[in-house]
Amino acid sequence: MARLSITGIRSIEVAVADLPRAAKFYSDVWRLSEIAQDGETLYFRGTSSFHHILALTPAKGPQQMRRVSLNARDRATVDALHGKIAGAGLTCDSPHALKGPAGGYGFGFQDQAGRCFAIISDANDHKDDARIADRPYRIAHVNLNTADQPVLHGLLSDLLGCRLVDNSGPQFFYNADSTDHSAIVICKAPADTLNHVAFELPDLESVMRGAGRMIDAGYPIEWGVGRHGPGNNAFAYFAGPEEFPLEYTCDVEQIDETYEFHGPDFWKWPVGRLDHWGVTPPHTKRWHRIQNLVEFSKSGYALP
Ligand SMILES: [Fe+2]
């Protein structure tokens, strides 16, 4: 039976200092498709049916995460989740018909750290939905740094209906109402910044070819290629435009309600190893820096 929860990440909105450069990168190198423009905002889709998975807007200052939009199955779920979020006293607007090219029904809210989220259903999604070689399908997960892990845990589990399925030390993995192992990861950190955003590719061949395409375009691998413990997904991490922390991933473990939680002792690697294959070098210094680099906008939670 479906539980009262989000089904996963629908899209992210990022404000960038150099919009033309970022737009060219996300189309030509990252391989999304630009499908709409509304004012100064550009919308990019993957090959899933979601109307868009990335929105880019011009930043007044440094690059910023503007919003993470979560997908709900239907309007009733949006309304029910709104009731919980409003009831918990979080800042939010009311569910309404949304403007903009994606349309839909939803509302915006802020977490306790001021980060902006949205919960959306019934958007103007595409009829076609296929996993295509060398092209991102959708956002697999967003990893959020948090200075107050118990508070964010409360939001994800008590209000959004997500389930904590693994904990590998500082990282906590949350399953949405989906067979995908996790959709949101939270990482204990000194500040409430973005850790990274992972885009799902259809297979390992696409991750390897994508890594090569990134290297050719001047974006070397910052960590990987390797295969993670929790989620068992293959990974390659990069510093995208303006050093936005990006991941190409594939093979996310498919789970159901019988999946057993494991903690840090279970997920500890043998000395010298950082992935299942034992092939990835350690993270670069740059990756360590940029996984705490991107701040969230603390205003503009309400959806037009
Ligand atoms: Fe990741």
Low-confidence stretches: none
Tell me the β content: 25-35%
CATH class of the largest domain: Alpha Beta
- DSSP strand count: 17
From the 3D structure, determine the CATH topology of the largest domain: 2,3-Dihydroxybiphenyl 1,2-Dioxygenase, domain 1
Bound small-molecule species? fe (ii) ion
Secondary structure layout plus pairing:
Elements: E1 8-16, H1 19-29, E2 33-38, E3 41-45, E4 54-58, E5 64-71, H2 75-87, E6 96-97, E7 105-110, E8 116-121, E9 138-146, H3 149-159, E10 163-167, E11 171-175, E12 184-188, E13 194-200, H4 204-216, E14 221-227, E15 234-239, E16 245-250, H5 264-267, H6 285-290, E17 295-296
Parallel strand pairs: 1-4, 5-8, 5-17, 9-12, 13-16
Antiparallel strand pairs: 1-5, 2-3, 3-4, 6-7, 7-8, 9-13, 10-11, 11-12, 14-15, 15-16
The structure holds fe (ii) ion (FE2).
Residues 141, 143, 196, 198, 247 line the site of fe (ii) ion.
